[in-house]
Amino acid sequence: MKILFVANYMWDIYIFRGGLLKALVADGHEVVAAAPDNGRIDMEKTIPGLKAVSITLNKRGINPVEDMKLTYDLYKLYKKENPDIIFHYTIKPNIYGTIAARMAKKKSVAILTGLGYSFVKGGLISKVAIALYRFSLKFSKEIWVLNSDEVASHELFSKGQHRGNHGNEGQLHIKNDNINLFDKYKLIDNDIEKAIKDAVARKGKS
To answer: What pLDDT, in 10s, does the model give residues 72-82?
Structure first.
């Protein structure tokens, strides 16, 4: 199986998903990681067998032209790489990557973690982000919505797996035989706003 991961930074993919990527490569899967590359890590050297693709993504930008270009660039990437499944992390990959996957007719999973209060405190940007999520995530095969406490306290979470980790940084060890443990985080009835608010409400209770 060919699996593609997309996130804001290549370093973040390594820090938070490195163990998963290594396990997938070891299991014989073809693994591709796509993210902006600031030269902090050589993913292909660090994880032999993995393919790294550098993309242009401004995670804090609100320029619609930039975002349209990102969508098109991801669409071309997905058509070229032809993955069996795509995993999107963080807001822009989740929104524009999911739209690109739909355009390319590829299956994708959106994983929303550590969402915080920027999505529920109001304001124009918050409303626009929720509207974009509502539109785009209906194209995902599955959607997982977790808050940061649920990630850190999860039985599959472990800290200090890689050099460079600080504080509570770590990763969730997700494999075929335990992925069903995340069923409770799936989006229900396509109500992304309720899922985000529910994740915030659970924060501190997990």
So the answer is: 999 999 999 99
